[in-house]
Design brief:
single chain; globular; 5-stranded mixed β-sheet; 62% helix; 650 residues; 25 helices; mainly alpha
Length: 650
Amino acid sequence: MDFAPLALPVVLTLALLSVLGVPLALAVGLRGFWVVAAAPAFAVTLVAGTAVVASWLHVPWSVLPVVVVTAIVGGVILLLRRRFPGPGESLVPAPAAGAVALVLAVLGAVFVVAWRVLEIIQAPGNISQSFDNIFHLNGIRYILREGDASSLQLGRMTSPDGSLPFYPAAWHAVVSLIVQMSGTTIPVAVNAVVLVVAAVVWPLSAVLLVRTMFGTRPAYTVMAAVAAIGVPAFPFLLMDYGVLYPLQMSLALLPVSIAAALRVFGLSRVSRPAGLPWWILVLFGAVVGMTLAHPGGFVAWLALTVPVVVSAFLRAGRAARSTRRRIVLALGFVVYLVVGAMLVKVLRPPAEARGWPTQMSVGEAVWQALSLSMWYLVPAVVIAAFTVVGVVLAVVSRQPRAVVAVAMYAIAAALFVVVAALPYPSVRDALTGSWYNNLPRLAAILVVAAVPLAAYGAGRTWYLLRDHFAPSIDAGSRRGLFWAAGGTVVALVLAVVAQLAGPVSRAVDWAAPSYRLDDASTLLTADEYTLLQRLPNEVPADAVIAGSPWTGTSLAFAISDRRVLMPHTLMYISGEMAQINNHLDDARRGDATCAALADLGVDYVLDFGRQEVHPGYHAFPGFEDLAKSSSVRLLDEQGAARMYRIVACG
C-alpha cells in the first residue's frame, strides 16, 4: 500500500506541534529533553485555548490566530522571565552514552509504533468503521464549515439547542488545522494525527516521565521506551475500541503532566524545584491541553498524582517545626481531598452514558492487571515481569520515587479491577464513573501507570547486575558508550521480536478489520465510500442530504463536504426532522413533509440499506423502500448504495 499521501500531513502535524510548542517551552525556561517532550502538550493547549478565544472574538478558525496567540503568550513569558528566574536548573552535559541511548530508544519506539499503526489503518484514507467515529469525522467538518473550533461550540453540531454546552475539541481542532494546511481529506488528516500522537507524542511523553522520576541513566531511558510500546492497551486499544481518538491524545500527554507535577512537588530526580512558580506554569500548560483533548485524561491525572501529593504533604509535615504549621498542612490536605472529590463528581458523563457492565470475575481482573493482558488477553510477559520486579525493588529500597511509582500502578490497577469486576454498582460508579464505567479506558490508563514501574524494575536490575559484574565501566568513556549503545540496540531488537510474537500482534489483528474497506465494512462499505467521493460533483455545495445516520449516510458531511440532516446517531431531533424521517417516502406537494423539507433545505436522500454500524435496526420509515417511491428520483448508485433527488415537492 502506498502511504505517500500521509507524508505531508504527518510532517505538518509534527511542524505544528513543534513550531507552537518548542518556542513556548524555551520561553518558560525548559531545556534539554524537556523541551522536545513537553512541546506537544504546550502546542495542544495553545490550539485548544486559541479556539475558545477566537470563538469569543468571532475570529474565523485557522492557524493564523493560533500563531498570534502563541507569539503573545511567549512574549509575555519572556518579559516575565527577565525579572524572575525560569524553571531550568543549570544543565550539566549528559554523558555521551546517555544521549545515544535516548536517541536510539526514542527513534526505535517511534519506528515500531508507526509501523504498527500503519498495519492497522492499511491505507491512508481508511476510516475506523466504528460508532464514535461518526461524530469525530463530522466534528472536524463542522469546525471547518463553521470556522469555529471552540470546545464550547462543537456540541452544537448535534445539539443546536445548546443542551451540550461543552465537548472537548482539542483533537478535532488539531486535525482541522492539518486539513486546512495540507488540503488533504479528513480521513487522511485523522490518520496522520493519530500516527503522530501514537508513535511520537506518546513515547516522548513516557520517556520524559521515567527520566523525571528516576534520572537520565541509559537503562531507565531505554526501558521506558520499550515498556511504552509493549502493552497494546495503550496506544493501540483506543484506535480499536470506540474509536477514542481524543482520549488517546489526552493520555499520550498524561505522562508530561505527571512529570510536571513531580517537579512542582519536589519528587523529581532533582529533589528541590528551581523557580517553583514557573514549574506550576509548566504544569498548567500541559494540563489544559490534556483536559481539552479529553477530561478523562485530567481525572486520570488527579488519580495518579495522589501519591505525589500525599508524599509531598508527609515530607512537609515531618519538616514542620510548629503545631500551627502542621495544622495548616492538615487543612490544606483536607481542601485538596474535597476539591478533588468535587472535580471527580463534576467531570463525569450523564448517568445514561455510564451503564457499561462488569465483564469478568475479580480474580480474572486481578490477573489481567498483573500480567498487563487487559482486553487482548495475551500477557505482556517481559514488561509485566519487570513491573513485579519494580515493586519488589521499591519495597526493599524504600526510595520515595519508586514507592510513588508503585502507588501509581496500584491505583490504576485497583481502578481497572473495580471497573472490570466490582459487583457493587454504586461504589463502582463513584470510583470509575468519570470514565463511563468503561473497561477499555481504564485499561489504557493502567498502561500509563505501569510504564514508570516497569522501567524502574528493568533499569534498577541492570545496574545492580552491572555494578556486580563490571563495576569499573565509566559511562562517559568509549567503553561506556559502546555498552550503552549495544544494550540499547539489543533491548530494542527484543522489543521488536516481542512485537511480532506477543500481545501487540494480537492487537493489530483485532484492530485492523475495523479499518478495512470492503463490502462487509460496518459503517461504510467500499461502494458507499465510492459514492460519497462522487457526491461533490453531483450535489450543490449548499445542499442538505437526508438519510439514516446509523448506516453511514451522515458521513456525506465529512467525506463529501455536504451538509446532512443528521450528522450523528445521537442528536436532537426537531419536529420537522422527525416529519422527514417518518414521511419522506410519501411526501406530496403542500403537505407537512414538503414544508419541513423546504424549511431545512433538504433536496437529496441517501439510501445505504439496513446494515448499521452496530448490529440492530433503527426505523426511519420515510427512508425505506425509496426505490418504489414517487417522491424521489434516482440520481446515482454504486452497488447497493443509492442517492436520490427529492422531487415530490415540485
